[in-house]
Amino acid sequence: MDTGKLKHILFTRKLTDNHYEFGKKIGLSLEDYPFIDIELRDLPEETIENLKTNENASWIFTSKNSVKSLLESFPDISNYSNRKCFAVGEKTAEELRKQNFEVIVPENHNALSLVDKLEKESSGIPYFYFSGNMRRKTITNFFNENEIKYQEIECYITHLIQPDLKIDQFDAVCFCSPSAVVSFFSKYQIREDIPCIAIGNTTAVKLLDYTENVAMSEKTNIYSMLEICNEYLNS
Questions:
Q1: In the chain, N or C: fewer CB atoms in 10 Å?
Q2: Among 158, 183, 199, which residue terminates a domain?
Q3: Which of 158, 192, 211 is the last residue before a domain boundary?
């Protein structure tokens, strides 16, 4: 591509006007096309009652979508903020803190790091694990292998969507979830010289199933991803 032009970046999720402005400022031309759609589930009353009555159980969240779903079905959740909470990632934790929960976040924002935390917890504590339909088995395998009592609550459904695009027009492709990676590569292949930028470790690992040209942003936000794109393409 002509190096005199702004580098053309595809994001596989929706961006804001501020993201577009920041991208243009650092020499990037952005387009966004979501590759997944999230459907929040209504949780049964029985599930909500279990959450209320099991005072000793700890709660585990690996996505802010789980928090959003729970809030819709359990609007007075802040009355139960004494529950011990674990969250993978600061964005998920922040949604819980808004409801007055104190949240434990592993140093590395992935399920393996969370399992390391859980191994240090007292034995005999039950867990509620709030998940989506495409979740990995890392946490449930840990529970089953160690005979830990838990209830998995599927809070949302991820639908894969694949817009029609001319992929070769882009200089880089950015991914914010493993599900978006799966959705994208089920339809498209990209040239080896096109870098794929991941928002975090779990997404980066999933990308390595499809390409070796993977970079990860320093922080788990869109601005950090844009800065990595700039370093790769404009330096």
A1: C
A2: 158
A3: 158
Measured CA to CA, the distance from residue 150 to residue 121 in angstroms comes to 14
pTM of the complete model: 0.84
Same domain, 92 and 110: yes
> DSSP of the chain, one letter per residue?
--TTSPEEEEESS---HHHHHHHHHTTEEEEE---EEEEEPPPPHHHHHHHHH-TT-EEEES-HHHHHHHHHH-TTGGGGTTS-EEESSHHHHHHHHTTT--EE--SSSSHHHHHHHHHTSPTT--EEEEEETT--SHHHHHHHHTT--EEEEEEEEEEE------GGG-SEEEESSHHHHHHHHTT----TTS-EEESSHHHHHHHTTT-S-EEE-SSSSHHHHHHHHHHHHH-
Note whether 89 and 109 are within 8 A (CB): yes
Residue 4 has pLDDT above 70, yes or no: no
Q: What is the CA 69 to chain-centroid distance, rounded?
A: 15
- Residue-range definition of the domain harbouring residue 182: 7-35+162-234
- Of the candidates 151, 109, 158, the residue with the CA atom closest to the CA atom of residue 134: 158
For residue 209, which amino acid is it? D
User: With contact defined as beta carbons under 8 Å apart, do 139 and 22 qualify?
Assistant: no
Cα of first residue to Cα of last residue in the chain, in angstroms, is 15
- Give the torsion through C-alpha atoms of 45, 46, 50, 51, to 10 deg: -20
- Answer whether residue 108 is part of any domain: yes
